[in-house]
Amino acid sequence: MSERLSADVAIIGGGTAGCSAALHLRRRGASVVLLEARQCGSQASGVNFGGVRQQGRDWRELPLSQRSRLMWDRLPDLVGHDCEFVASGHLKLARSAADMTVLEDWAVGARASGIGVELFGRNAVRDRFPWLGDEVAGASLVASDGYANPRLVAPHFARAARAAGAEIREGAKVVGATRDGGGFRLETSDGIDVAARALVNVAGAWGSEIAARFGEDVPEGVLSPNMIVSEPVPRVVTHSLGVVGGNLYLRQIDRGNVIFGGGRGLPDLAAVRSRPSPASTQAALALAVAAVPALRQAQVIRTWTGLEGYMPDDIPVLGASRTTPGLVHGFGFSGHGFQLGPAVGAVLAELVLDGRTPTDIAPFAIERFAAPV
Ligand SMILES: Cc1cc2nc3c(=O)[nH]c(=O)nc-3n(C[C@H](O)[C@H](O)[C@H](O)COP(=O)(O)OP(=O)(O)OC[C@H]3O[C@@H](n4cnc5c(N)ncnc54)[C@H](O)[C@@H]3O)c2cc1C
Hints:
The chain is of the alpha+beta class. Helices cover 28% and strands 29% of the residues.
């Protein structure tokens, strides 16, 4: 026998985006049912690198990213926990003169947007970061960037949303979704039947599957960033590190473990499974030792990856449906949606309740993928 629920808003997906949307909607008084196929934070939101980074972002994402950055400081007030967010600074390394030009160009635009950026040439890098290797030709630092523990973020948003009155159902995969009269009807694999006036599609790498049910075909692909963690080693890496070109990023946590990312693993979206790639792991470790020679002795203890939705232009779909009134989308974060998650939830709540948001999301409109007429 099926269970019937009704709410002002139904949310499909319990990643950071969905759980933050649930909390923001409840804070504005809307009733909410969130349906998550597995556990909140069990997909990309819970297995990512944990980078909370504005540096290097596409300009079109900066307003959303800056709004989110303010929220990371306020997590204790918002969700009752800091989620181990540390403003360590994000240091991006140049390995050539051409890389340095990339950093300098980004710094000009970022400063105009109010983001503090410090640039270092080769000698300044040696003086200030003596633990970096000789291949480093320069760097740029955004001191307000950092990292957090991805295992904690979506679950804490979910807990706060539930405490605020949201109905959050885990193990509830949406298998039917239709527009019905003035609202939406959803059916789940575990027999829940939901009626809602509005629908938020934040289904991550499966977001395009949900959109397709409403006649919106978008070219979302799936990729699996390859992740590695070492045993604890003496503290040497003081900042979250990235490189121009993005084929290496790493950070060291207080306990001493170093978390690395680089290259791709092997996704299997249909099976809801992904595997790290030994070749990507070897390549990332070689780059890491070149960047930070002290890591040469560190032993790898685990590798993993996850399933992330990528759009062809590397920016998400975020905004109203073009076919279906009352439906809003937020998916396809293309490998950098963890930092954006808190603000994405706030924006989605505004779109549902006000029909607009003060944050510039125009570049993320789903219309950009509409077939030409
Ligand atoms: C390995 C890896 C490293 C990354 N590193 C970083 C980083 O350092 N910094 C950064 O900013 N970003 C990073 N990202 C990207 C970031 O993790 C994602 O962009 C972000 O977490 C997406 O959040 P989300 O809530 O949109 O999606 P998800 O966390 O994927 O959540 C979507 C949820 O929807 C659920 N769902 C799907 N279909 C259904 C259905 N039919 N019914 C019910 N539920 C459904 C899924 O089970 C899932 O839990 C990384 C991603 C990966 C995989």
